Amino acid sequence: MIAARSRLLPVLLAVLAGPLSAQGSANVPLDDPRLPLVEFLIIRGSIQDPSPMHRPFRRADLVASLERADSTPASDSTLVRTLLAQYRDLDATNRYAAGVRGGFQATTTDRYRDLMHPVGSGGIYPYADVLLEGVFGPVVAVSRPAIEPRVTDDPDWPGRTDLTVAGRMVEAYLGFQFKTWGRFWFGQFDQNWGPINFFAVPLSNFSYPRNYFGLDVGSKNVRLMAQVAKLRDETDSLGQVISRYHFMHRLGIQFSPRWYAALWETTVWSGVGRGVEGTFINPAGLLLLSNQYGEGDNGNIIVGTDVSWRVAKRATIQLQLALDDLQIQSIDDSTSYPNRWAFTITGFGALGKRMSWQALYSQASNLAFRTANPSDNFEDAGVGLGRGFPDMDYLSLSVSIPVMNQWMISPDAVFQRQGPSRITDPAPTDPGIIRVTPGFLSQPIEYGYRLGVTFSGRQGPFDIQGSGGLYHVDNEGNIVGVSSTRFEGKIQALLRIGKRGPLK
Predict the structure, then answer these.
(1) What is the DSSP track for 242-290?
(2) In a domain, 486, yes or no
(3) Is this prediction's pTM over 0.90?
(4) Comparing C-alpha atoms, which of 134, 137, 110 is closest to residue 124?
(5) Does residue 70 form part of some domain?
(6) Distance (Å, rounded) from C-alpha 455 to C-alpha 463?
(7) Would residue 61 count as lying in a domain?
(8) pLDDT for 332-341, tens place per residue?
(9) Which of 47, 246, 253, 340 has its CA 20 to 30 A from that of 300?
């Protein structure tokens, strides 16, 4: 047996020699201050989206899109060349990047990632992070620890809140990338599986990143993605530890330069003594057949679809539709739950020669992301995995304006309605309560309005990002008659030093 294996190893290495000769590439992180400029080019149709309705994308894939656009002169060609020069990797097979950033964060609300659900009064906090990145042929290793005292006041922070100085891993992952068919990776980084510039349903950067083991395989036009994570344990009323897990997979097809579509599923399963179960982590399986429509394993499943259609040369429509359950029967089979759903539809495109526009509407039903067993809700440590809140809708209009090919300025107007339901609430089980549970927008409704601006950019050694505006709310906190008008905003300003080069 040992001799057979020793003969097999050279054969296996020879087979993998071609794919392993690929040069790896790190992700473009979602907090990169230049990313809004990239999204601006995608929205205008000036470059092809490197990874439709899925973020982050790899730096090498972005560079390929920018290089294709650079070959065709257009009104955005100067910005394309500027970004191409900044994102292009070194040609060295083995290379490194290292850097340090330091500065401050200032915010009017403790909830940092969603200004339309402000909590607390915020403050001014120091911030620092260190980037360590290495590429060794097809292997990519990235680590970015940060000292971020602000997080201990954030209601969406899942870690310790009893510290004066707190830290977190902004990015920490190890990837194996293959030239012809994809990659494997393990670690954590912000992700968003859905339309541009809004929190997606299956997974988004509303929550802080957690560790996943993932794969991304296929050709340029057909991609299968899957990833699984261990969520934080919970404890039941008997003191027993409930283990919780999250899995999601997605098959995306680029039918033509104008049409893209994907089918996806996501699930949370939990229980005393439960582990990673094969029926729930099969990338090529159907989760619905692992649950109530097939094998009967106990878990909460959402199925969805993503569609992107370039209607005209410079206008695109994107849709994400998620169905949690349709007419699930209650315990005594005498009533049924209201349907559970969520969706986002957005349109965007070029506005004149130097601007872009985006209009977006999103909705989540009252019982979306929730079940009768709260351990199967789509949340981790009380924070939504994708969407942060059920029972709401959101309408926004924005315009984006690049300044000096270094800055993005985006004025916006937002209207939001929010019911009192929360993602940690269990779905009702009493037939009497189920009968009177509304499908959408329970009472009383909070009404929020915003007129503001978002800005981001890199100028020399400085990275600056922020958002702020006039915020008015009626029935604040879902309390009838409570209203206020105030400024809500945040800013992060950092000084950056760093170096990159080949490894010898």
Answers:
(1) EEEEEEEEEEEEE-SSSEEEEEEEEEEEEEET----HHHH-TTS-GGGG
(2) no
(3) yes
(4) 110
(5) yes
(6) 11
(7) yes
(8) 455 567 889 9
(9) 253
